[in-house]
TrEMBL record:
This is ABC transporter domain-containing protein. The lineage of its organism: Eukaryota, Viridiplantae, Streptophyta, Embryophyta, Tracheophyta. SUPFAM superfamilies: P-loop containing nucleoside triphosphate hydrolases. The keyword Transit peptide does not apply. Residues 1-26 have a biased composition (Low complexity). It comes from the Eukaryota. Residues 64-302 form the ABC transporter domain. Gene3D superfamilies: P-loop containing nucleotide triphosphate hydrolases.
């Protein structure tokens, strides 16, 4: 089993593979640390020439711009996010790490408009458009995709029909004619093969009776079929064995273009070796009792 990134002392040193020169783009500090639950970004150490090159970056247009985002649980009013700043540009891969309960999943759910949460302050712009008042389905049609940490079942709806509906909704928005089932099969079939999934999964109801690993593969199948300008991947590595993780990572890497971006949440170095991030952020909670945490997490938190 892979070790959590933070479980090694090397995890926070400049010699860590996470921060090595094999990373496709520099890891640089992008935002001032906010107050309560904040994002801290790890800068990769590099030679002067590389520093100069990095200073010229970033080049892509901003895709997602989050400023001073605060959000609470709708039912109880409990504040979870209290000042998150994050900019993701076209073509960038961002990773968020941080201890359990620091608000990582909440951030992604707020971005896609999950009904359990209420934005109480700050702004979220996606391709320059204000996301906050947009319905979740409109966010999806705008090009935002989320792979959930715990994907839900949709009883009575086959995977095939679900994917076809999602693809046709996207096509309709772009003024393209709907695909028929036969035509769509030729689109979906190679993607099922690429993920080494049994084609029978297309006939099964969405996630019904799927194992944890099968659900994760299915989430990435949805992403590869539906497509996205920004994919939010919440712990896609959980429940996957080494081979499955490689298949999923290959599928994600195969979707990357200079225009689209990924935000992935993970605790593990292994995923970051397979999908190389441009930036790594640490979600930090002001109220975290670092002295009660294992020393590895203390180090990770203090060293950013
Ligand atoms: N719907 C909710 N109701 C109550 N508490 C919640 C809800 N969603 C998140 N929380 C709480 O907010 C904190 C952050 O949760 P989460 O975003 O899932 O953390 P992470 O993904 O970093 O582990 C946790 O303490 C969690 O219990
Ligand atoms: Mg989570």
């Amino acid at each position: 089993m892979a070790q959590p990134l933070a479980a090694s002392g090397a995890a926070v040193s400049s010699s860590s593979p996470l921060f090595s020169s094999s990373s496709s783009r520099p890891i640089a500090r992008r935002h001032a640390p906010p107050s309560y639950v904040s994002m801290r970004t790890r800068r990769r150490r590099q030679p002067a020439a590389a520093e100069a090159a990095a200073a010229a970056e970033p080049s892509g247009s901003p895709l997602l711009e989050v400023r001073g985002l605060t959000a609470s649980v709708k039912e109880t009013g409990q504040q979870i996010l209290a000042g998150v700043d994050l900019t993701i540009r076209e073509g960038e891969i961002h990773a968020i790490m941080g201890k359990n309960g620091s608000g990582k999943s909440t951030l992604t759910k707020v971005l896609v408009g999950h009904p359990h949460y209420e934005v109480t302050g700050g702004t979220i712009l996606f391709k320059g458009e204000d996301l906050v008042d947009m319905e979740p389905e409109d966010r999806s049609l705008a090009g935002l995709f989320m792979s959930f940490q715990a994907p839900i079942e949709i009883p009575g709806v086959s995977n095939f029909d679900f994917l076809l509906m999602a693809v046709n909704a996207r096509r309709e928005k772009s003024g393209l004619p709907a695909l028929g089932p036969l035509e769509f099969y030729s689109v979906v079939s190679p993607k099922v093969d690429a993920l080494k999934m049994d084609p029978k999964f297309l006939d099964r109801n969405v996630n019904e009776g799927f194992s944890g690993g099968e659900r994760k593969r299915n989430e990435i199948l949805q992403l590869s079929v539906i497509g996205a300008d920004l994919a939010l991947l919440d712990e896609i590595d959980s429940g996957l064995d080494v081979d499955a993780l490689e298949d999923v990572a290959n599928a994600v890497n195969g979707l990357l273009t200079p225009q689209n971006s990924v935000l992935m949440i993970t605790h593990y170095q292994r995923l970051l070796d397979l999908i190389k991030p441009s930036y790594v952020h640490i979600m930090v909670s002001r109220i975290a009792k670092y002295d009660l945490l294992p020393s590895d997490l203390t180090c990770l938190a203090r060293c950013v």
